[in-house]
């Protein structure tokens, strides 16, 4: 299958490069009757916008989303929804020099070899810019999940380089440009980033996402297990090199007696599983983390090749993010929303006789 | 979509529960002309079989696979291949007691709430038993990849609980029942496992898989990026809680200047990316690791509920694996093979060895 | 996508050739809780079996279907259902002569050129034999549709060569080997077929299928319109060369004032549309017809080629059907059932807030 | 699956209603390197435009298509192509009266019951207007098929009401507003249409499409047989009630000795099969016909209901086509192109022009 679509009953198909005319997409499968406006979608786009802090890309983008179809008198009609975001501030000339060079760590080399041609301006389709439409599409899913099912999705930066969040205050997340949940470390973060920018280097990050009040029963074993689909969805975001659910890689050193989440009439006693068991949601919070690699667009020179197989030194002078992880937060929420939306509809279709039970209610006989 | 299929051009659909009549599947899309026999597939099934060491499940399974279609005079015909493995040794009475109880850490609770019904014998469809067919299907992919493209896929146990492999000797992997690559730690592993079995507990594990000689250009951005599909594929294996590519979660603390793999006329200078860049294979080894949780089938009692929402104590007396990670090795190889096969065909088509003949030319032999 | 699967939420994947070991398939997505037995599926398989009348193929096939998974204590569990039918009576020696010859009108030529190899025994995967599994899978869908939704699906032979049914008596359909609904023409049919067999020739046929009590609202515009999916599904049956819905090709000469089905508080005044409007079911009977070509396996010699591009005379001596249309009836019902089942689940998933309204009830506000 | 996408390797997803802001879509999977411009796509859009003759809809539409991504320096990049057509001349007030009425023969009734809501302006998503984007997308496929493979696709009006084309002159097709291939009957057509418009009625039509120089081997048995996919694709066009391949419904009365296309060293002796055998292309012309129903938007009053289940008389006063068949010609060509493109890539892969390079060989120019 051509790879620019995701989802079965709730399907998102996108197009657009960093320096093309526009980004856009088709969101297909949103049930009818949901109230939705461009402002609803603009909220998360603004959270994603570069220029939010002095450390993120200085590229000024408008990122104004338009809804072109599928909404009538303020409500979804059940037909496909067209989304469009025009590209604005592109500064093509920044990229002219790399026309014939493969920047290390970018998709230049692989796109060239896969397609035999590449749009060398700013990363083309490989650029993180295409995620703007994912965020808009995710906005539709987020609203449906919240309004119809009370499901909330929140992400935050849990670690930046060596600096880990030790406490999680969601209020704090929304009031600093890093989406960091631990107020006590904000100054350290600031200093670290400033030094990084001076060095002309970049750093990796870890993002944590939580979906709460999810119904029991989402996920389609064995191959479309919910965790497998979440992994797919999150790993499809640029720069992601790892995905984990619940305790993730910590389980390697856990004993079975430690790891298992016991059941009592009051509820589960723990959530090592991260809300997914045997590939199906348990009703507990779904907790996932991703690892984002440091961007390769740094001002420290590096070795590369041109298309004639000759060595060249690479220095990026364009605008870049010293830490792409910061911008990923709204994208991670959007992808989680898109995946949960798809599975919600699939469960409603696949098991119509079963009532959806929200949250973790062990032992309740829902028939 | 119903979740028991994976892949687009190379599609595997499976059925079967641990205590049903048989396991089976349809492997669709293997190009014609590949020499394949039941013995080819039996090799990996035998590697997966319980009873291999005194620490793995004592359940004796035959696991003899039959090829029911799609192969003629020893070669694939390009039509769908049917696979069948009859279940043998099931000991149903072991599970009678848990008919009305949700074993913590298993799919009992979630399957009950998703479907409103569950096959309580031994885990039903949630059991790792269903992976036997994946291994057989993966065998077809492995052979095609190896024979036609020289691609090799190998996995090993890189960590069991606190014991990490410090060196990687692939010869060693095949000569111990743990698939462990570091000979110097085999005694330690043995002791650790013996203690675990006495305690009646279990432990997690980490498995590493490497695919070498992969062509450049596999992967379909943006959503079907190769790493996203590998993550999906590996996370769909029972007990997996995390997937990472290349340096994985280590990238969180890496600087851009460290992480990027520079290009020279002789080749890449490193492989932090793990063989995938911007979602497309680079030609370098694809390196991935997964985290497997410790099994919840242990003899240490735990709290659980029955279907009347009453507290019960759970003790598993059936057969179990103190470390499921050990058995995952052939399954991991199989899933990697299935995913790479699918992407190879998506890049190359269903019948790449056949030249397109335009217009009606009867009788022309186009080979 | 590899082509041996059909459906999204209710997905059927099949394997098996006419002379292979067995036919089989995976039926994925049947909701849990449906009572189903092998006997339920055997009913339609027996209707399809050759040897039913002296005019149909004399090949004796057992066609005994086994359910290998997905059913527990007599009910579906919601997991994938494995089906198996062993091949029995094959008489391979009948086909030895055609190993290197392309029989005109068969898939020999096209399979050879598509795959570069072919299983020459009896048509291989192109043989109508593979439809046995479709009939078994369709049996599951038929039962669910009938039991849970009261939907009934019936097909009959509406025309054989020049002999058209002028009246439709469904009782009559089940009591003659032709599935013909007009008792007054049965003798004529008999005579016609006897002459045909003497001539060693074959004839085409038209089959009509009706689904009644279908809910309003099935179908997913614009590409998965219900009629488009029905057309796909029916055209995928061997020998089908045309599909029409409602008045079908008669609409070419109809005026708008004649064709449109007017709405009154008592119901629609007609059903020229055949139960589908703008690609969505109206609640009225869904009426479709297919045209089946005459089989090319006849004893009258014909010109063909061998693989060395030399002219040869073709005479089929094996067993064959002078009219394949007769055997298609259960297959047509099965494919209609599979498609409606898929769309029923998709509607339940896609529009969960809308209650399914069965039958044609114009004007009823179902919110 | 949400129904607004079609295709696997060449996938088209669309959005847009007749009175929405714009129509658009994503065309995913076109191989890189194809030269394509907006003018290329505009050609077929202009052929489809209303106002071409005095008999077609008087609605003036601009139908100017924009390419928003996926094309760089005049060539496709292999990434998804975004298309946009802004809606212009809508005259919403024409439809105000039907806000609460179900027009017979239209999707009003079915959309209302499926979604619980409908965009009542001009047919909404059910309107033929959405096919404009299909034509644009089909233009990309047509160019690729023609340029890379020499495949040509042409459609014409073969019958309008009682008037059948007796001869087929493709030059004639392009020089009259009816796309009719028989010059001797043009006057009769003209007279017939004039009378129809006076009566305020409409008529059905038959359209024939031919694809020539198609390679042998396209189609994925058993469910994605090429003819089944063509049937799906063509039946998804508004107003289509029947699809036939080759001799279509004539085969019902054909003997096997007549129907089969014999093979000689010089070629096939006939083409009753219409270019598809056992679901795979033979290399001969693919010939298909569709039946289009007469539009229900006529000025002759008809009975209908409003949403309160009360009888009302319906008269359409807006602009309409007395014969929609005339406008379908470019749409039929587009859908045939989209389907053949998809199957060509499935047989050949996403990037057939690129050689697979194994292992990591930086800088090697593999073209």
From TrEMBL, chains A, B, C, D:
Transmembrane segments: none annotated. One of its GO terms (biological process) is chorismate biosynthetic process. One of its GO terms (cellular component) is cytosol. Pfam families: Chorismate_synt. It catalyses: 5-O-(1-carboxyvinyl)-3-phosphoshikimate = chorismate + phosphate. Reduced FMN (FMNH(2)). NADP(+) binds at residues 48, 54. PANTHER family: CHORISMATE SYNTHASE. Homotetramer. This is Chorismate synthase. It comes from Pseudoalteromonas denitrificans DSM 6059.
